[in-house]
Structures are given as C-alpha cells and as structure tokens.
Fold this protein.
Amino acid sequence: MFWARWFNGFIRFLRYCCDAEWIDALFGMKLEASYLIEKARAETGLEDLGIDFKECEVNLHTLLNSARTEARLSPLGQFLLAQRVRSSLRCRLKAEALFQRFPEILEKEKLLPAIFIISLPRTGSTFLHRLVARDIRFYSLFLWEALNPACDSRQLTNELENNTKRRKCNGMVPWILSRFRRWLRTILSQFSRWLSCKLHLSSPIITCSLPSDPKTRGDERYEHAQFLRVVLHLLLGKGISTIHECEMEAPEEETILMDLCFGTQLSEALYHVPSFAQRIQSQDPTSMYRYLRKMLLLLQWQKRRSASSFSTSPEKWILKSPNHLEWWDTVHQIFPESKFVYLHRDSRSCYLSAFYASSEIRQVFSDQVDKKEVAQHWYRKLNHVMRKSIESKRKIEREGKTVEYISVSYEKLMEGPLQVTKEVTEFAGLSWREEDVRRCVEYITKQKTERQQQRQESKPSFSQFGYQDEHSLRPLPELV
C-alpha cells in the first residue's frame, strides 16, 4: 500500500497548490459522465455506444453523482473509478464496432445452453465455478476476456487505430505518434512479464478451463490485462487477492460484462454509494441481461475463431454472478434454455464474510471507511436479495414455466467438492470422466493450501462491525 499512500499524498499536494478541477482533468480523474464518454470516444475513434445505452447512461450519472457526494473517495479511488468507467465505455464502443462489422455475430451465432451458479456473495461460488470449469466441455469467461471482451483480431485493432488517426489529422506527425504508442506498448508488455515473475504473479495456471491457446499470449487484450494486474499489485499489495483470487486465465464471473451497463452490485462492494444502490434495486434489469447475451455471443464467436486447434468443442457455458439470484426470473426469460445451481450458506457466516470482504475492498478506494456503515448496508442488501429471489421464483411458477435447478449447500461443497462437481456436471447433461477428476484434484489441492494461509491472516468478528455476536442478526429468508 506504500505506492497508494504516496499517490494520494502527491495528488492532495497538487490540489492544494493548484486548481483542483485542473488537476483532476490533467490526471483523467473527473467524475463527470459527459467528460468520460468524450474521452473514451477520442481514445477509440468510435462514436456508437449502442442503442440500449440511454438507460445505462442514467445508471452512470447516478453512480458518478453518488461517488462524488457520498463515497468519500481518496484520490486513488477517484482515479481508479474514472479509469474503470472509461475502460467500460471503450469496451462498449469496440463491441458495437464488431457487431456492425460482423453482423453474423448476432444474426447467425447460436448461444450454447448455460449453467448459471446463483448465490449470495461469499458462499463459495467462485470455488465451485472454477471446479466445474475444469471440464473442457464448458465455455467460461476468462478474466482477461472480461476486462476487454472485444477487439479479438489484430486487423480490426489496426483499422481502429487508422480510423483514429484519420479523424484527428493526416500527415507524418500522427503516423510517428502511432508508431511510438505501439513501441511503448511492446516495452510495457515485456516489462510486465518480467515484473510478474519477480512478484511471483506468473505461477503455473491450473485454474483455466481450456488449454492455453498459443494465440492468447500474443493478444493485446491479454497483455493489457497482465500489465494492469501488475500495476494493481504494486498499488494495492496482496491483500485484495485473499478476498477474490485474480488470475488472467482463470474463469471469472460475468458481473464485469454486466457492469458495462453500470447496474450491478459491483459498485456497492467497492464504494459507499447508497443513492446508486437504491437506483439499481428499482431498475428493470431486462436490458442489462439482453446486453449480457450479446456479449456472450461475441465472446463465443471469438472463442470459436481462436480455438480451432482444440479437439474438443465445448457444449455449454458455465457462468456465475451474485447478481443472478436477485433477478432469477429475468435470467430465465433471456436465457430460456438455462439451468441453475443454487448455492447457499449459513446466514450468519454469509453476513460476516460479506461485511469483511466489502470493508477490505473499500479501503482501496477510500481512507474513511466506516465498518458499521458497511455492515448495515450489506445486512439490508442481502435480505433484499433473498426476498427478491423468492418473489422471482414464485413469479416463474405463476407463469407456468419450468425452471430446472439443483440446490447445494456450502458445507456440502467444502466437505466433498468432487462429489458436488460430479453432480453439477451430470445435471448439465454431461458425463463425469476420469480426466475431469484429475484436473479437479489439482485445483482442490491448491485451494486448500491458500485457504489455510487466509484463515491465519484474517479472522474477522462481528464486534468489528458493531454487533455483539452472530445472534444479533436476523437469519436470511430461505429459498424454498
């Protein structure tokens, strides 16, 4: 965290000496929707954010207003939020460019059936997700893909750069600048590889679901994500990885894709934004899930193009996000061929883990985190999600629709992960094979070692969050 404290002190000193708005604009930290949209368009040379962006823009305005007035962001937190929004906008712009250039993505590509793991946060869903994804017959979303889902082909990347140059001006100067940027990207890529080895960030990848494609390491999206990981490690330290393990080629939740619409729980976990939280609780998530379907079609289309060398063609998607439990009926409406795995955990353990995780993550973005405030927010949020999920399930039943799902407890998953993985695989309609057992055992062994270290490093208690003991909290409603 040394570099984070240094950055915060440096920006505060500059704001004291100079005009604060000018400093924010200089470092790209202005939390204004119009400014960030203009920057994203200038960086890509593209204009179209999609016909469904109007509702997303309302979410974006609400998020930024809430962040400015309620979140008590540090300079680093403000910078990271601005960069996150700009990155999401760039992803939307590039995705729309791909949809326009290759209309067959939406017109001819057929999305494979999906298995959704639905649960509250902190219930072991990441562990189960990555276990099931060890089977190469499943497609899963890798972290490096989630961070930059569009622009798979180098040819398109070059065309976008040329388009940007033509828009700005013609002549030798922009050509020299483009060559310099390309050279700089190469240098940064090589530096990030070297530094990741020194920081022990490039340990053998055993959590990926598919064999590593040789084209992957040459993909600019992968190189960009790896460099981002190194920078965040330097700024934030190792603490963040004890809450959620981040590996570039590990299966990741699709919350990152859904957040391109700026309407998920992710922002609630990262910042204190009660106005934004109230906004998304009352929103209609249909357009967000339609956009998720579009992005999955795009990723599936790209995966098919880049994985032609693999002998096994995936037959299903394995997906997971805490957001799905709240909007179960909408997920079923947009993905009618989907099946669900409902993962649940003891209420009080779920409370404590969620309180601790959010309070730790928020300290990255703010140096004024109130742990009691965090606990009160997530106590209300988790109860709201469970009530909403019960309503969603009843709505599906009233409409006479059939939803296929199985229920798995956290305790059962921890006691017999192989048996649970087998049940989920067979529930998906696939056979359980000996090679899947071998892959799963590798991952389970690695996770046991890491969990033992995490237990020694962090032992949160309810007293840290203003509660006497676990009995001070009402148990969560049960989904029956």
Observations:
- Residues 1-56+68-101 form one domain.
- The chain has three domains: 1-56+68-101, 111-124+261-305+313-480, 142-250.
